[in-house]
Predict the 3D structure of the following.
Amino acid sequence: MSEHAGYEPVKFAYWVPNVSGGLVVSKIEQRTDWGYDYNRKLAVLAENNGFEYALSQVRYIASYGAAYQHESTSFSLALLLATERLKVIAAVHPGLWQPGVLAKLLATADHLSGGRAAVNVVSGWFKDEFTKLGEPWLEHDERYRRSEEFIRVLREIWTSEHAEFSGDFYRLHDFDLKPKPLASEGRPHPEIFQGGNSTAARAMAGRVSDWYFSNGKDFDGISEQIAEVNATAAQHDRRVRFGLNGFLIARDTAAEAKEVLREIVAKADVEAVEGFGSAVRQAGQSTGNKTGMWQDSSFEDLVQYNDGFRTRLIGTPEQVATRIVEYRRRGVDLMLLGFLHYLEDVEYFGSKVLPIVRELEADLDKTAATPEPVHAS
Ligand SMILES: Cc1cc2nc3c(=O)[nH]c(=O)nc-3n(C[C@H](O)[C@H](O)[C@H](O)COP(=O)(O)O)c2cc1C
């Protein structure tokens, strides 16, 4: 690989199952457990099976499934302390966190973990979560305006000795965070991810996020998003990296894998899926051009909260690996994966799918590799 020093192999993240019910809204048997013992074991297994990142979920109340939820930042810290190399991304909602408090918490988590803390800024789709906590529910694009300020504040606090900020949502006056998080080459502070697909989300990513997470998409769907985010990023002299969600079902034969998907959908919790569908569509209604997540999701798509079946990582190890490498070729830096039976499926992924991905990557035309990231100030 030395003659292609610019090429970065595709990275892998998994969704932390820190809410009950697993990653599909289905009554199919799931051996995945949302508790800490299971998750600690899973995190260690994942870092030994090719996973560089784990993404926790944030949920404060039951939401069409997910009856029980472990809090995201504390659970992420526990997983950081249980592992050696895994980077754990804590999901947070601006509007429920004061950014300075979160900046402080993550700086400490970064020190406790040797520089492995990261954050996913989610702008929210679930109105009840805010109103039941007595917080105002902002209109869609206002939520993104607040998220953008939130990210700017985090970065300012993490990189400036006399942090100053004057915005519509947040203010800082000569604030000096000590200690700062652990900075290293190419990583001046904990990496900042975001989830969201609307026009407002894409523009925010181009301006301020290190990473843009997409819901499940086919090849053209992800290419379109990457092009749009990159266009904004270029105007700001930045580089954004891309993570793509996919629910992975790899089995020895394609027929077995398809049968698992068929059973998941056949046993879907119809009431919960429909309730979720109408809540998320309502949350995106205020985006005039209907580009938000879930705007065109079918019933089957919604059985996996984040449209993970659409990425079609369902088949034999060869079929799945081939699709992953095609996504990489199209500019996806990180595959964010969900599984049915995590412990079994992560091990199968590491032993059967990952080696084929790496073999296929060795044959890729690496001259198309993307440049080194530029971090916004
Ligand atoms: C990878 C990913 C992870 C997300 N994680 C969460 C989460 O843990 N909690 C949450 O409330 N929303 C989460 N979201 C949803 C976002 O908060 C946001 O509501 C959603 O992306 C809709 O935004 P849009 O209208 O810009 O498409 C996630 C989104 C993505 C893509």
The chain is about 40% helix and 15% strand. Residues 2-368 form a domain with the TIM Barrel fold (CATH 3.20.20.30). The chain has one domain: 2-368. The CA atoms of residues 245 and 336 lie 5 Å apart.
